[in-house]
């Protein structure tokens, strides 16, 4: 592992990185929130299906 070479490449990447605009940040946050909500909804549906399968209503 070449430490000086790795450090210079990390510094170069950090110099190229920029702060996203508010529009870009809000779009990314909406998409990430929708993904989290979708995964949670799928988990809830699976939970309901499994609870009906293991304990059917009488």
TrEMBL record:
It is a single-pass membrane protein. The chain crosses the membrane at residues 31-53. Its main location: membrane. GO terms for molecular function: protein transmembrane transporter activity. Keywords: Cell membrane, Membrane, Protein transport, Translocation, Transmembrane, Transmembrane helix, Transport. InterPro entries: Prot_translocase_SecE_dom_sf (IPR023391), Translocase_Sec61-g (IPR008158), Translocase_SecE/Sec61-g (IPR001901). It is found in: Cell membrane; Endomembrane system. One of its GO terms (cellular component) is endomembrane system. GO terms for biological process: intracellular protein transmembrane transport; protein secretion; protein targeting. Belongs to the SecE/SEC61-gamma family. Component of the Sec protein translocase complex. Heterotrimer consisting of SecY (alpha), SecG (beta) and SecE (gamma) subunits. The heterotrimers can form oligomers, although 1 heterotrimer is thought to be able to translocate proteins. Interacts with the ribosome. May interact with SecDF, and other proteins may be involved. Essential subunit of the Sec protein translocation channel SecYEG. Clamps together the 2 halves of SecY. May contact the channel plug during translocation. This is Protein translocase subunit SecE. It comes from Halorientalis pallida. The gene is secE.
């Amino acid at each position: 592992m070449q430490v000086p070479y790795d450090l210079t490449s990390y510094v170069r990447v950090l110099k190229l990185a920029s702060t996203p605009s508010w529009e870009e940040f809000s779009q990314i946050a909406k998409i990430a929130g929708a993904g989290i909500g979708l995964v949670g909804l799928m988990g809830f549906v699976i939970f309901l299906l499994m609870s009906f399968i293991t304990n059917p209503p009488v």
